[in-house]
## 1
Amino acid sequence: MQKFLGALLICTAIIPLQAQQVLSPDKNISLTFAILENGVPSYKVSYKQKDVIKSSALGLETKDVPSFLVGFSVKDVKQSSVDNTWSPIYGEQKSIRNQYNELVVTLEQKALKGRFIKIHFRVFNDGVGFRYEFPKQDELKYFIIKEEKTEFNLAGDHKIFWIPGDYDTNEYAYTTSKISEIPSLMAQATIPVHAQSPIASPSVQTPSMMKSADGLYINIHEAALINYPAMALNVDAVNYKMSAHLCPDGVGNKGYMQTDAVTPWRTVIVSDKAADILTSKTILNLNEPTAYEDVSWIKPVKYVGVWWEYFVTGKSTWAYSNENNVRIGQDFSLLKPSGHHGATTENVKKYIDFASSNGFDAVLVEGWNVGWEDWFGNWKEEVFDFVTPYPDFDAKGLQQYAAAKGVKIIMHHETSGSATNYERRLDKAFQFMADHGYNAAKTGYVGKIIPRGEHHDSQWMVNHYIHVAKTAAAYKIMINSHEAVRPTGLCRTYPNWFAQESARGTEFEAMGGLAPEHTTILPFTRMMGGPMDYTPGIFQTDLSAYGRGDRVKTTLVKQLAYYVTMYSPLQMAADLPENYNRFPDAFQFIKDVAIDWDETYILEAEPGDYITTARKAKGKEAWFVGGVTDENSRTANINFSFLPATKKYVATVYADAKDASWNLKPQAYTVTKLIVTNKSILKQFVAPGGGVAISVKEATTDEIKKLKKL
Amino acid sequence: MQKFLGALLICTAIIPLQAQQVLSPDKNISLTFAILENGVPSYKVSYKQKDVIKSSALGLETKDVPSFLVGFSVKDVKQSSVDNTWSPIYGEQKSIRNQYNELVVTLEQKALKGRFIKIHFRVFNDGVGFRYEFPKQDELKYFIIKEEKTEFNLAGDHKIFWIPGDYDTNEYAYTTSKISEIPSLMAQATIPVHAQSPIASPSVQTPSMMKSADGLYINIHEAALINYPAMALNVDAVNYKMSAHLCPDGVGNKGYMQTDAVTPWRTVIVSDKAADILTSKTILNLNEPTAYEDVSWIKPVKYVGVWWEYFVTGKSTWAYSNENNVRIGQDFSLLKPSGHHGATTENVKKYIDFASSNGFDAVLVEGWNVGWEDWFGNWKEEVFDFVTPYPDFDAKGLQQYAAAKGVKIIMHHETSGSATNYERRLDKAFQFMADHGYNAAKTGYVGKIIPRGEHHDSQWMVNHYIHVAKTAAAYKIMINSHEAVRPTGLCRTYPNWFAQESARGTEFEAMGGLAPEHTTILPFTRMMGGPMDYTPGIFQTDLSAYGRGDRVKTTLVKQLAYYVTMYSPLQMAADLPENYNRFPDAFQFIKDVAIDWDETYILEAEPGDYITTARKAKGKEAWFVGGVTDENSRTANINFSFLPATKKYVATVYADAKDASWNLKPQAYTVTKLIVTNKSILKQFVAPGGGVAISVKEATTDEIKKLKKL
């Protein structure tokens, strides 16, 4: 590497602008920009002298103007340094340091009347971000992108945690393999998912998590995906080279650009410690500060919902009747009720009572509005109107009932993928919410997208989600989107878009299952982009209780651990109230656990194997620890050094019993109180598919006397 | 024919339901339905024993369910007769008789669990309409149409007045040829038009006007185009067979259907008199009565506008500045004004003054709102926001100025084809209009459609236009759509959608020109579907007055005649005020002419050659006559027998001077007053490219004394 840099320096003596190097503030990461033969821009990245991204081309292929691929020369370079700190509205830590060295290269294509672009590189201690900028200029106003040609030329046949590249879904199970194995594993990895559009050539979704043979953890994703299609990665499994693959629209175009324009940031997070990947704030730092003046109404939410019963009990349904050919606008009270409708006034009241008794903020109600009888699979545009309750759902009465008990109802806006219909009705839908006291909506995009030909990940839909978030903000409504494009840190800019699904979540425990390792991978992949509404908290994991053959592949305690390991400002207790009532001691953890944090500590982590995380509650002297493992039991190493030095604390440890496991005794657990200090280290057994959850608070004198010291 | 029917009767003795005949009330038209070999449904139509449509297949090809093409047998038939009369809100006559014999055939496909459809045939005295119905049934809920396979098997190589089949535009010049000549003439007929998508195989748009060698006038179109793509006609030029060609969406599908569903009516208007084609009300009769309870706010409008100056003077522009890379949301007051902006407060006041002085209802203002700097050609989604005036347009002040003078301003909503952007902003746009006292909007769809992949004529856009009309109705706003799908009589159901362009209108006189025959064809083609905003009234036809090389290819008088020959409840006086001020005697006709009618009389007509029309003003003892010719001079035969018998009338005759012609002396005209009665016949010279216009009112005793009698 030093040799290469030497050569580069000689080179720059002749064409001084054509190659540029920028180091991270801690000097561990080096990014080098260079113009290759034919005027192709390129970059490479190393970490502690190890290649992360080998020389890789940059550029875009266009349709209607000459491409941004060759013939470039450097017109100008600027380097600068930034070091500041900002406070997120909610998050894993109360303040975030934004420290990087920046290189902005202005590149001109002299043969094209000096047409120019800029590439911005930001080098943080834990990774790099770069983006293309197309400044306003006489010779460049509008253009259509055929493909972005950004390459990520990896240094070896890394281990990779991946799901298939797809224009419409991220709801695949993860495959762990070598890069070289991806093509041969693609068919089996491409399991059936509704409305899927797998990319024809071998490719993977981002965030793409890799581990090199020499111990580097590398994560490739993007930040600030605005007015641009989402990026998957083409996989050249022979040369270990990845390259951008943008999601097309219905006519095959990939982006409609007007100068001044920028692409999203392409991010490469790298470290020799897996924990650094999880604590990286580079993606958030690359997003713009919030676009809203008033954010006082944006609050984290812990909730229950009329939801899991639809998946497991077989007794309740979203739909009101068994009819399967309905239209909004018809009188649904004339339909014969099936007797199985879940979102009845009575049932919702039960959940409101439960939420109120147990300190939850809100109750999600799915199936409240007309149209569920034939909502899916017909590429139908006007499935829902978002304002008409079923005859047995008393919107006004429930509003009053919930308000009297200090509980909010969370609106559900399933679009069935029909974004045009939703946009057309958006203001009326949000006005209905405002009129009825709702302040958060779960949106859904299950199905093929309308406008037909667009995809969940295409530029038009990317703009749609943001349009929904911004419109919601005008009504002070928070949005939790399901089946939308994977997040890219936009919760910083549009903080009311506070959670997303965009991955295989808990619902799949009842629709084919999730591997025990799944949740040791998600924080390294999907969750790099932003909070996930994973909907944890399933206590009745053996679904044979409902007469089903399958089971949730975790212990009960692992479900508790998720509230800490899977960060989100929106956390559900997804199981049925009656199941929580059967395990009040374990349920206490869900009631206690914070959903907003001052500090986060990744105590140990290895993608695909385990994660143990500790967090300090926002503004409180309370800490919570969560640890999860894959299908293998292990001993978690929980070092309490994150606690303040002077005091003694009570740790309430929710642990798998010795004989527990996800498939045999998932509900075998212990709850133990111990006195700990910041010198304590807990070696904690974790069962196969199990976890550990700990709440920590200052000990009383009485507790210090009575409780065992760790 | 009798022989055939005899054979049919024998046939029906064996399979009695498999063939059915229905006659028009006057028995001139016969429609026969029959099941052909393989269970293919078919129909044929004759007029006074002459074949109009020879045996032609019916059916639809589908994608996801078995097609509706073969294997049909007749399950049930119903015949009935209807004869009633209704009053349109506005129109060519105060009451319309709806008289037809109906045949409804229920067809089942026994091999498909008895799946069934219905075909409705209505036989009027002047033509037939038929449509497919897909009733609700267990085995048929949703389906996607690949193509409608309705055939129109013509009896000969008719003369046809046609424009190329196209998914996005009707703004072609007409070609007159034999059917057999269509393929060889297609290339030259497909002249450049913005955002055109000519159909690859030989095809023509509807309304398609034909004349047979044996003297039949035949018009094929459709009625009540709702939730379905528009139909063009494939042309088999060897067998003179036409067949439906529906407009596809971005993924190639042609229609998304949910039972109970109907297609639009397919219409065949036929007569041995050309005038009967023009007076046919079959298309209106096939549309549903108005969907609105209150229609009191829907009124015909005669207007002027800041419009023609954009096309001819070279001095004013829609755009405020010469910048050509702007975005809504930016501060347009920071742009450098070009000094040529047309929609300035001052200029609009000039038009308001003119409108007020001359009895016009309204002033159209184009170019009032930000975004025109780069509005076209970039497939850009957010071109306009419809609520932000340019800095030099005082929306509030002009509202007050116009209101004080009893004049309305007509809003302009150019969408640039970006229907998604318009829908998203529709309520705010109409609210802005309501807040500022506007009650009519001219909408525009110049450009490639967004949702990208959709077309002006595809099902999604068909629904869009209706969505706009219905939403506008909620704000009591009338809509005049330009570049939308061609009309199909929906002005009956949605009467606030009171005019459309959807053809090559006056603007093309300044963009390549219109042949003198153009307006002798339009009433037989485009205008069969509904009123056209043709924007007549150009007095300064020689555009060299503006330093241009081209000219409007009519005499001045022909422009007057258009107010009668081209029916619309929305009529513009399109020329500049100063041109009207130069010809006050001729302008008097435009000021006088009615725009709503009790009765209409087609005095003589031949498509491509001439039309002479008389109409009685709505609720008034006032008549207006308009006559137009093509490039040939002629003598119009104006029989005043439409006048009441007992009285004497003054006819003010606006006539081409003897030496007038469109290309030499277009402004040479005479204005003569004559006494006429219902026995009078005027043989009136009409110049090449010329016309005649007459206003008729009861004569005073003084006038009877002084004026010459015809």
## 2
Amino acid sequence: MAKKPGIPKGTRDFSPTEVARRQYIMQTIRHGFEKFGFHPIETPSFENLDTLLGKYGEEGDRLIFKILNSGDYLSKVDETILESKNSLKLTNQISEKALRYDLTVPFARYVVMHQNEIDFPFKRYQMQPVWRADRPQKGRYREFYQCDADVIGSKSLWQEVEFVTLYDRVFTALGVHGVTIKLNNRKILSGIAEVIGASDKLIDFTVALDKLDKIGEDGVKAEMIEKGIEAEAIDKVKLLFNFTGTFEEKLEKLRQLLATSEEGTKGVEELAFVGKEVEKIGLATAKLNLDVTLARGLNYYTGAIFEIGAPETVKLGSIGGGGRYDDLTGIFGLKDMSGVGISFGLDRIYLVMEELNLFPEAVNAASKVMFLNMGEEEMSYSMQAVMKLRDAGVKTELYPDKAKVGKQFQFADKKGIPFAVLVGSEEMSNNKFTLKELASGEQTVVSLEELIERLK
Amino acid sequence: MAKKPGIPKGTRDFSPTEVARRQYIMQTIRHGFEKFGFHPIETPSFENLDTLLGKYGEEGDRLIFKILNSGDYLSKVDETILESKNSLKLTNQISEKALRYDLTVPFARYVVMHQNEIDFPFKRYQMQPVWRADRPQKGRYREFYQCDADVIGSKSLWQEVEFVTLYDRVFTALGVHGVTIKLNNRKILSGIAEVIGASDKLIDFTVALDKLDKIGEDGVKAEMIEKGIEAEAIDKVKLLFNFTGTFEEKLEKLRQLLATSEEGTKGVEELAFVGKEVEKIGLATAKLNLDVTLARGLNYYTGAIFEIGAPETVKLGSIGGGGRYDDLTGIFGLKDMSGVGISFGLDRIYLVMEELNLFPEAVNAASKVMFLNMGEEEMSYSMQAVMKLRDAGVKTELYPDKAKVGKQFQFADKKGIPFAVLVGSEEMSNNKFTLKELASGEQTVVSLEELIERLK
């Protein structure tokens, strides 16, 4: 019983400072979502197992945390399954629920269940934890928050324009300036696949192309050939090896390259619309970049693909992403609902802000002032002031036990409380308070009104 | 696959309005906690199974949701257990983690694990969901939030004073006026048990006494005798059958009644201190009531016991509670840490506020204004205004697709959006916007600056 307790691997305790900082990030994202007209929903932490299974591929199914049925869950289990010791088969018999693996499938389930209450297009955001039985490693946890915004029921490209500006405004508000909003389109990738005549090699192609900066044109070509892409095909897309310039210049190159592909050309036009409207609106601190190597979510995205690169000084990779998917709710029987959504990577954003020292001074859990405990009578006298300060919105605590003054000051100091109030017989008879600023050591005797004024 | 999806029994989806209202309650409680010097922590949703088991009694152990181990969890299981189909024995072999059942045990585990980083007394608050495999019924769910504040490492009675005033201030801020803060003390209950000479009958005694209003003195006495309490013992505490008057008058009765009990007398003095200091401070809208029938948490509380009664016009019972426990962290090997804490019942408070119509008008998820979509050119013109409004903090959305104006107005109306903006060729050439208030139908043509001014 008395052995030192621990927590499951891949999970975390959050200290007061960490909670305050995480809440600051989440509040800023939340305000961004709401200003852009998104509405919050919340779904249960666990879903019926059959809602989740089969939605994330075989590997995903394995990583879903299943919840054991309550009570005598073995009583109805087929004995042959027990005898065979087949874990996979037994799971379905002793588990009916599982912790959600992401927020997208629960959202699709929500939309289908509540379709008669919802006015489409439906703009929802959701900020809740998800769980994955992944092997834990640096920056990868078994419990983590996702912060998602999606629109469902509209094919309008204005949604893509909105998401680009939303990313810009939220990162600007967080002080994370200079993020790169990478934009691509699934249809452009399909066009490239068409042109190189090898749609099954698309991932190999984009992975190799992404290494251009590191291994140069010859290196990339060698890798492509090694992966089985024909030299002739590579030659057809040679424009991509010199894929520089402005958004508009890149678009022009793609127009040429994909002229023979109907789908590719459609992708170019979609990107052109988004690029043009975003430029007219103007981004506050982010940069928009057309990146044809961006191939995330290739299996489900059907239009725009987004990814957010951290500011260049930080080596952290992606801190957000998303895209358009044409049939999110089809898995639950509601057809033809186009959706588009983005996600903010809370843990990564936290690391970026920590590294760049971007958390405002005021974002911490410390109280503003502590009243010292000089005895019962003094405390009793102090309580009126304590409550008036709180009613005025000042975070105020009191040292609960009578202790040496030095110890009490040390306590306030360790906790980062900037002010202390002392009350002795003199203060009580004059109806005053001694306010001490701990950093400077400066002390002033003040009235209650002055005290509130100083600390508010 | 296409069958209509559902959610596990006892769980809930929350709509945008419900999330907005729940967040309003939680924000208000959070501000209260912080103004009183409490700091937030968060712990993982699941704990190691052995952290939780044995802490909530046999019934509690049954109601804990266990998580199935990942991978081939049966491979190491003893075959005789499988053959015996003993669910209870198998659980420990195939499950190492479980969803938290409350926030108190994880808090104790946190304190012990992080004792070297914590400066005591430690005032923490925590607002996170907990899970119980209880039979679902009206107002009882399998997933629900707890909102707890505790102080650990201080025996000072000022903590009790603080919690009474904290309850008062939070319910006042929520607009829930007239709650009753019921106060009792475990030592008084022990004193009564001593006086009636039947400590094993204490629960029966308080349950019967609690029915005084309903079944009268004779009824209560009959029930007590039926439960095996001696008539002579009942006579010794007859003062409790006329237990009315002010806080001070009730205390006086208890002083007499418990004069022979050292522990009971100590309980009276503790209550007297809290009552006196609370009265000096003054409660804004709550009432303090000494209630000797309050016997919640009899197994773990050692001092003060709190319970919050909803305003009398609402028949809802307890909407919060707490108490002092002398050895919270002992179960994890850290001795002599006295703690005291309270909890707000989020779901019940929600019901009270709904019934009394206390949610402010502004607490909903609706946007303030929607820009109609009159075509691509008009949208493109509108976007500057859309973004300026958002940058000014106004929740602004746009109708993403070109559709009949009537349909677009209907959409805004259904969603409770109070204003709409229309842009046509005239507005564009004059650099203006037509602002329509949907309720009155009133339309005005305004400049961008006026638009922001009107909607801010």
